[in-house]
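Handover notes (outgoing to incoming on-call)

Open items:
1. MSHA biogenesis protein MshK: sequence verified, structure written out, both below. Nothing else pending on this one.
2. Nothing else urgent.
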Amino acid sequence: MVWVWLSLCVSVVVWPVVAQGDPTAPLSWQAPRSTPRATVARLPQLQSIICQGASHPCYAILNGRTLAVGERIHGYTLSSIRDDEVTLVRQGRQWRLSLFAANVITE
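MSHA biogenesis protein MshK C-alpha cells:
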C-alpha cells in the first residue's frame, strides 16, 4: 500500500515536467528560440509607362497597378517617371527600371 501511494506521489510530481518537452532530450536542454526573419520585398516589375503630353503627368504600371510619382508599391516609392524608365526609392537606395533593358541599375 505504501508503494502505491509513493509511486502515485512521484508520478504526480514528475509527470508535468516530462510531458512539457521532449522526453529524449537532456534535462537541461531547451529548444532554440525562433527569431523572426526580415521579409525582403521583391522589386516590382515595370510593365508600361503612360505619358499623355507635357501638361499631363506620366504614370507607370508596376505589377499591374497604375502609379503616379510619389505613390508606393511593396515598400518602394516611385520617385520619377521618364519616357523609357522609372526610378524607385527604398531605404535610401535607388533602382532604375527600364522598359527595354534586361538589367536593373542600382545606385
